[in-house]
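User: Batch of two.

Assistant: Item 1 of 2:
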Amino acid sequence: MDKLIEMVNAWAKERGLDKVDARTQYTKLIEEQGELAKAIMQKNVDGDSGVLDSIGDYQVTLIIYCLIRDIHIAFWKTVINPKDFATETIYMNLVSTSSKIIASYNKGLVTNEIRNIENTFQLLSLVAGKYDTTLEDTLELAYNEIKDRKGRLVNGVFIKEDDFTSTQGYERGFEDGKNHVFELIKNKFDLGRESNEL
C-alpha cells in the first residue's frame, strides 16, 4: 500500500496537484463519491466506472488531498466484518465521515480532520470487503488506469485530455457526483427506520 501511495503522490506532483487548494481537491472527492453511489445503485461491480474503479478513484482523490495537506495516514486491515452491515449503511456512514473532513479543515481542526480521513479509508475498506476486494487491489487498478493519463489543471482541477471535448466541462463531474449521492439516499433508504450504526 505504501508503494502505491508513493506512486500516486509522484503522479500528482508531476501534474501540479500537490499545489492546489484542498477545497478544490475535495470537490473531486464528491465527484468520486457520486460515481461510487451510481455504481452501487446500478450493481456495476467491475465494469467501466464500476464499484471497483470507484473505490480506487476515491482513494486516489483522498491520497492527493492528504498530499496537499501534508497528512500521513497509516493504513491497516479493518477488523470489522463488512458482511455484518448492508452496503448502503456503510456507504451512508462513508458520506457522513467524508463530509466531516472538509468541515474539520474549514474550522482548522487538524486532529479531527486526520481522524475523519482515517475513518473514511476504513469505511472504504468495508465497502471493498462487501465486493470481496481490498483497498490495495482497487488502488492498484486505479493507478494503472491513470498513470499515463494526460491532461491539464483548470481552476485547480486536473481535467483529463478526453474530457476537454465535453460541452459541460469539469463542473459536470461535481454536479453528477452530488446528484448520485442524493439519488442513492432518496431511492435506497427509508430514513425513518432504525439502522445499524458502524
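Item 2 of 2:
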Amino acid sequence: MTLELLAWMIGAYLVAGVPVGLLIGRARGIDLRAFGSGNIGASNAVRALGRRWGLLVFALDVAKAALPVAAAVHRYAGTPSETTAVSLVALAAILGHVFPIYLRFRGGKGVACAFGVFLVLAPKAALLGLFLYLQTLWLTRISAVGSLTAAAAILALAWADPDVPFAYVLLAAGVAGLIWERHRENLGRILAVAKDSSQREAKLRDKDPS
C-alpha cells in the first residue's frame, strides 16, 4: 500500500464519518442517539424528525460515501491497482460511517453509505437493491428487514453481473457481512417476535381445533 492510497483511505474515512444525521438532528433540537433506536442513520431520523428530514439524512449519507469513491475511481482509472485501490477507499468510507472517530467509533449501520458506494461501483446492483429494500419495507414495515434484504441482494447481483470486477464483489461480501452484523440485535428481536407470534397461533389452534 502506497502512502498516497493510505491518504485517500484516511480522507474517505474522515469525510464519510461526519455524522450528518446527528448534526441535522441537533439543528432541529433532537439528539438521535436519545430517540427511538438510538441510531444516527436515516431510518431513525425519519422517526424522530419526519420524512423530509430523514430523506435529507439519507441523501447526505449516500453522498458522503459516493463522492470519495467517485474521486478515487477517477484518480486510479487505468492503473494496475485500480479496482483494489478503489475497493479499499470504499471500505474506508463505510467504516468511517460505522465507526466514526468523531463519535468514539459509535456510528450508524452503514446501509445508506453502502448504497452510495455501490451506486458508483455497481449501479445496477445498487438500484435493484434499493428497489428490494423499498418493496420489503412496504411488505413488512420493518426497515431492518429491508436493509438486510438489500445488502444480500446487492452482493448477489454484483456477483451475477459480469461487468462488476471481482474486487468489488469481495467488497460487497464484506459490506453485506458488516451490515448483517450491525443488525444482529434487530434480527434477534424480529425472530423473537416471530417466534412468539407463532406460539400464540399454535395455542389458539389447540384451544379451537375446529
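The chain has one domain: 3-207.
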